[in-house]
Amino acid sequence: MPDFTSLDVLAFACSGTPLGINIPNYDDIRQEFGFKNVNLGNNYPVPSRANILFSTEETKDLIVQYNNEATFLNVSLHELLGHGTGKLFYK
Counting Cβ atoms within 10 Å, is residue 84 exposed (0-12), middle (13-18) or buried (19+)? Predict the structure, then answer.
């Protein structure tokens, strides 16, 4: 059964921190013991109204207001459906 967790990032040693990860990265461990889908919840980008192009002012307000919720849902579905159910579909 696919599983999902949300964590807060304290430090990440790379140039670009992902929004979600699938751990462990070793295929033999994944096949034998399974894996964990992780959402790195405090790493979401914050949209700026000035950087949102080709949208009405009303749409820009919605994008800024619901950015965290929409990003959480997108990352969660990607991790769960994109990574978590692949083995179930194969069976």
Answer: buried
For β-strands 4-7 and 36-40, DSSP reports them as: parallel
Closest by alpha carbon to 39, among 6, 17, 70, 8?
6
Q: What is the residue-level pLDDT of the chain in tens, covering all 91 positions?
A: 566 788 888 887 877 888 888 777 777 777 777 777 888 888 888 889 999 999 999 999 999 999 999 998 888 888 877 766 655 555 5
Burial of 4 (C-beta count, 10 Å sphere; 0-12/13-18/19+): middle
Catalytic residues: 79
d(CA 41, CA 29): 25
Residue 22 near residue 4, CB atoms below 8 Å: no
Q: Find the domain containing 9 and state its range.
A: 4-90
Total domain count for the chain? 1
